[in-house]
Amino acid sequence: MRLNGFSRNQRLLNAGDYQRVFNGKTVRASVPELLFLSIPTKNSQTRIGFILSKKTVKHAVKRNLIKRIAREQFRTYYHQYKHKDIVVLSRKGADKLDRKAIHAICRKMFKKLDERILNPQSNQRPSKANNRNQRSSGSPKANQTKKGSNASNQKKTQGSKHREKLKNTAINQS
């Protein structure tokens, strides 16, 4: 094993490894272009895997650049990230990132993942059931939703007025 290399036991290698990250209790860190998922493991090794699709990053050169930079950031700070599996996913716009942005994003996201794994209570979101209860109790979000529905109702009435106007002009012309 090389000292500074990216060895086989530092990579997620098969579908089962990736599936554990997706199905487990994952910790997330993201920017609009990249999503980082992580799950604590009992292994002594921290491993990383990449899912960069052609749909989100068209050119292979750019996909390889993102992987190379993320691997380098991972390798550089590897001693800090212990006992976890990490998956990096690309999103729309990832192909527009330059080298500096990719470096900064990877550094920031690895740090966020580490913080969130160490302090799991600090980043928990309320469950969907709690959100529904808050909306029905007259919270500001509920009022925003009601306003939005009024706006859509107004659009519907404007559309029906327009249709009536077209019908009237068609009747008048005949």
In short:
This protein has helices spanning 15-23, 60-76, 99-118, 128-136, 140-173; strands spanning 27-30, 34-40, 47-51, 84-90.
Structural description of this entry:
The protein has 174 residues and is of the alpha+beta class. The protein folds into 2 domains: 116 residues, Ribosomal Protein S5, domain 2; 29 residues. Helix content is 51%, strand content 13%. A 4-stranded mixed beta sheet has the order 1-2-4-3, sandwiched between helices. A hairpin with a 3-residue loop joins strand 1 and strand 2. Helix 2 packs across helix 3. The N and C termini lie far apart (87 Å). About 3% of the residues have low confidence.
This entry's quaternary arrangement is: single chain
Order the strands across the largest sheet as they lie in space. Answer: 1-2-4-3
Query: Low-confidence segments, ≥5 residues, pLDDT <50?
Result: 139-143
CATH architecture of the largest domain, by name, is 2-Layer Sandwich
Q: What structural class do helix, strand and pairing data support?
A: alpha+beta
Overall mean confidence score, pLDDT: 78
Number of helices: 5
Write the CATH fold name of the largest domain: Ribosomal Protein S5, domain 2
Can you count the beta strands? Answer: 4
